[in-house]
Amino acid sequence: MIDSTKHKFLRYILFFNLYFAEGLMIAITTVVTALYLREQGVSIPITTLIIGIVNIPWILKFIWGPIVDHFIKFGRKTFIIFGGLLSVFAMFLASMVNPGVSLIPFALLIFTSHIGIGFIDVSTDAWAIDVSTDKNRGKINGSMFAGQYSAWAIGAGLLPFIGSNFGYGLAYFTNGVIILLLLIFPFFVKEALRFKTRPKIVPLIQKEFKKKTTLLVALFSPLVFMNEGMLSFIMPIFMRDNLGLGDVQIGLIAAILPITLAIGSIIGGIATDKFGRKRTLYILLGFSAIFTASLIFANNWWKLSIIYGIIGFLMGGHSTVSCALFMDITNPRIGATQYGIFTGIANIGLNGGGMVTGTLVAALSYSQTFLYASWVFGPTILVLYFIRLKKRSNKKD
Question: What CATH number does residue 214 fall under?
Fold first, then answer.
């Protein structure tokens, strides 16, 4: 067993690895499933609705988190392995189901796979809270999101290629195999539990959510991620239906977003540890609003690639900084639960925003939908202004 407290760089590798598994599920859902359903003749509103439904387990972190905290004596790693195996099993079964014939069973299997990833997510987040300080929390979140976005990029490029050339069933099977291989790494890392006694979850949660700052952060969380949901759900469909691109081309262009997300997450993590959470967020959110609105000018593949890449960089930065902020105010005794609530609410914004994009496009247009995706940053910045954070500790890593 390798002790991550003695080999501090190992923390970044560990969390990069675990979030890599999560990124693969984002790619298989937002890119591969979107293309697969459209290939099977499923309408745009139903496609985005299905993608939103199978992502609901990400919203239900307020269920997975308390389970992980309640059984703290088993450690975070136990639930990471459990969640991973559940996700892999569901992926293998989904690879055998044709959504054109059996849409509901197919959606249920993807939903189940996301339940497994939900357990990986809340357990990994709690583990990160246990081993991080406010001086390295941005960089740790940067490594996590870099892993997630790198996997998203690889998945967005590789899995559509497999699907279009060898059948989409093999793409889902391949995704399951990669996640299974990723589960090997945590076995070799020693987990040192910060707390070993079962916390009184309900009283602690009630106490935390009586604080004004906690409530404002809970309001901020869905707003800051809504833009990401709107764009990630609709862009593969926009590229196919509006620009007339093929699946492999779409996969390659879709990979630009997570690549720049990964770069932005690392830069954002370093910047926020140096300059603070709010100052960094104001800059990133302001520019995100401007470049999201500029998507109305993306009438060919190269304009889209440039604008999409810039948006990805900014999105990766503000996602990382936002999650570092969530960790800053989370009580570590209920790390999986409280942080899970913040990110679960955030996924309501991400998922909810994504689910309505198909309807917005059908009722309005792609250009107007992009403008709405830009507009959501206005209320986000307003809420951020009223959040008051404590002065950061000078404790060294």
Answer: 1.20.1250.20
Domain count, the chain: 1
Would you say residue 315 lies in a domain? yes
Give the residue numbers spanning the domain of 341: 2-386
Q: Examine residue 397 and state whether it is found in any structural domain, yes or no.
A: no
Q: Is residue 43 part of a domain?
A: yes
Q: What is the pTM of this model?
A: 0.76
Please name the residue that has the structure tokens 């997975």.
64
Measured distance CA(191)–CA(75) in Å, rounded? 7
Q: How many angstroms separate the CA atoms of 201 and 43, rounded?
A: 43
Start-to-end CA distance of the chain, whole Å, equals 22
**What does each of the 397 residues of the chain score in pLDDT, given as a tens digit?**
566 556 667 888 889 999 999 999 988 988 888 889 988 888 878 887 888 889 889 888 888 888 988 888 888 888 999 999 999 999 999 999 999 888 999 999 999 999 999 999 999 988 888 888 777 888 888 888 889 888 988 887 789 889 888 999 999 999 999 999 998 888 778 776 666 666 788 899 999 999 999 999 999 999 999 999 899 888 888 998 888 888 778 877 877 877 898 899 999 999 999 999 999 999 999 999 999 999 999 989 889 999 999 999 999 999 999 999 999 999 988 888 999 899 889 988 988 888 888 888 889 899 999 999 999 999 999 999 999 987 655 444 4
The alpha helices in 136-275, defined as continuous H runs, are 137-166, 168-182, 201-208, 212-241, 247-254, 256-275
CA-wise closest residue to 207 among 328, 326, 338, 322: 338
374 found inside a domain: yes
Q: Which of 195, 155, 227, 209 is nearest to 75 (CA)?
A: 195
